[in-house]
Amino acid sequence: MIFWDSSAIVPLLVAEPCSRDAAALAKTVPGMIVWWATPVEVLSSLSRREREAGPGTAEAARVLLRELSQAWAEVLPSEEARTGAARLLRTHPLRAADALQLAAALTWAERRPDGHRFATLDTRLAEAARREGFEIMLSG
Predict the structure, then answer these.
(1) CATH architecture of the domain with range 2-137
(2) How far apart are CA 9 and CA 39, in angstroms?
(3) pLDDT, tens digit (0-9, with 9 covering 90-100), for 8-29
(4) What is the domain partition of the chain in residue ranges?
(5) Among 87, 95, 137, residue whose Cα is nearest residue 111
(6) At what angle do helices 59-69 and 6-13 cross, to 10 degrees?
(7) What is the pTM of this model?
(8) For residues 76-82, average pLDDT
């Protein structure tokens, strides 16, 4: 299983330079773990693209997101994740949403990230996850 950050999920839904690599990873390693707010973050990205490209351009991606979300497991909000995110903000140069993503991944890994994988295209988040002990997949 791999923890997937929102930035790594978007290329599964819309054409991007790394879409082929993301799709291959998703097929090769079954089982996606995501943070509870990931669908909202992905919808934010899709909506921004739609505002730039015109109405209706993201509908197919939203359908794919609904299908994909039926198969993944989510790390739910918890005091552990909130406390972990606060620590991560003091330790790494992360934004709040990225700290929550990484804290969720650490919760999933039971705070022992060695041997666990983290898919992201966000270089700052990838570096923080690497420093925490995750193996990084799809780093941008």
Answers:
(1) 3-Layer(aba) Sandwich (3.40)
(2) 9
(3) 999 999 999 999 999 999 999 9
(4) 2-137
(5) 87
(6) 120
(7) 0.94
(8) 97
